[in-house]
Amino acid sequence: MNGHEQYADDLALYALDALRGEARARVDEHLSTCAACRLELEQLRGDTALLALAAAGPRPPQRGRQRLLDAVAREARVPAVVRTSARSLWWGWLLGAAGMALIACVVLVLRENLALRQSVISARSEASKNARELEELRRIAAPIIDPEAQRVTLVSSKAVPQPQGKAFYLRNRSSLVFLANNMPALPPHKAYELWLIPVSGAPMPAGMFKPDAQGSASMVHPVLPAAVEAKAFAITMEDETGAATPTMPIFMMGAGE
Amino acid sequence: MSPQPQGTSTDLALVTGLKAGDQGAMAELYDRYSSVVYAVALRVLGDTGAAEDVLQEVFLQLWRKPAAFDAARGSLRSWLAVITRNRAIDSLRKRRPETDIEDVVLSVAPDLAGDAERARVAERVRGVMGTMAPAQRSALEMAYWEGMSHSEIADKTGEPLGTVKTRIRGGLMALRKAFQG
């Protein structure tokens, strides 16, 4: 610890995520300037990994694999990479030999061939880009256009101008699009927090937002727990760092339409 | 990183595949590590449905942010185990994720390639835990598997905060020593 023994116990708690409040803030501040303690924290996390690896249990249900791969396919970023194999190496040699023959025979033809290849690669790249953009648009639009999506309107109990929020939530994809307008301006260091209120259990944070000068705001796909059935959505005003539980009073709330 | 006995590609090659959008690499990593991830999630949550949700979430996070794993610092198996424990505790305590996976960096000394090595490590960890005083083992387990803060543990056990802190660190040091010796 190189003379930093006073942080030793707290670092162990920090690694376990068991340190809260001011003590955690003190450690955060110290870590920002102390490489030795950052290294010790990495080692402590490695120690905690040993605890995790001692866990034993049944194998996960087979359905989980397909569920994951379906979700991954929906979030495909780029076309799958072709890994190097003996077959692809053969093709590479073949193409190389063909190229050499072309060079030896007709330079002009090679140039034309190269130009054509570049066009094909460019066209494929463009098609790939378009496919990714289309998939991204489909992913974003799914909670709005899918007939299974819950449509929730949140309104204020106060008078004009009426703040309004629209939440489009697709449970089976854990996807959410939220739009708001006429939202009152926030005090300094405050933000609105959207809450997903499940059928059972405590409200879950569903994203923070600050309206623009016109009182409008939107959120697309904030991080949500998987496949939670929503009974309602609500909005509270919180510190801009966010809250783990809603601070009363509830500013807006709405159930499914 | 050591070659993995369960497949033909190393973890590093598969994570590189993820960065390029290779869905086949994702399937291979799932086959390799879903048992570890599910076991950790189930140990924390005690509910198969909730554990399946965390399993999905952890692998999707890996898919979305493969660069968060620093192969130079340790094994993917250990990193996933730590990420899973953290996410499961967040789920158990119904709170937003407190630590981004990109911020979870760990150093791991033991070579953890393969299920056989994992089984050996697990047996050794249980052995070390078995040698701890019951109060120390209990404090460490409450912090790790139940996600309790040191003050919550102190309230529950009626012991001073300082004692709880020292016991928890002492427990982790005992584990470290067992794998360094």
Please describe what this structure looks like:
The complex is a heterodimer of chains A (257) and B (181). Chain A has 3 domains: 48 residues, no CATH class; 64 residues, no CATH class; 92 residues, Immunoglobulin-like. In chain A, 42% of the residues lie in helices and 21% in strands. Chain A is built from 6 helices and 8 strands; from the N terminus they run ααααααββββββββ. In chain A, the strands form 2 sheets. Chain A has a 4-stranded antiparallel β-sheet with strand order 1-2-3-6, covered by helices on one side. In chain A, strand 4 and strand 5 form a beta hairpin. By secondary structure, chain B is mostly helical. In chain B, 68% of the residues lie in helices and 0% in strands. Chain B contains 8 helices and no strands. Chain B is globular and about 50 Å long. The N terminus of chain B is likely disordered. The chains are: A alpha+beta (257), B mainly alpha (181). At the A-B interface, helix 1, helix 3 and helix 4 of A face helix 2, helix 3, helix 4, helix 5 and helix 6 of B.
User: What's the rounded overall pLDDT mean of chain A?
Assistant: 77
* Envelope shape of chain A: extended
Structural class of chain A: alpha+beta
Proportion of strand residues of chain B: under 5%
Encode the helix/strand succession of chain B as letters. HHHHHHHH
Number of domains of chain A: 3
Q: Biggest interface, which chains?
A: A-B, 59 and 83 residues
How far the N terminus sits from the C terminus of chain B, by CA atoms, comes to 21 Å
Q: Count every helix of chain A, treating DSSP H or I runs of 4 or more residues as helices.
A: 6
Low-confidence stretches of chain A: 78-90
- By secondary-structure content and strand pairing, the structural class of chain B works out as mainly alpha
Shape of chain B: globular
Helix content of chain A: 40-55%
Q: What's the architecture of the largest domain in chain A in CATH terms? A: Sandwich
Span from first to last CA of chain A? 58 Å
Q: And the CATH topology of the largest domain in chain A?
A: Immunoglobulin-like
Supply the number of helical segments of chain B: 8
What percent of residues of chain B adopt helix (DSSP H or I)? 55-70%
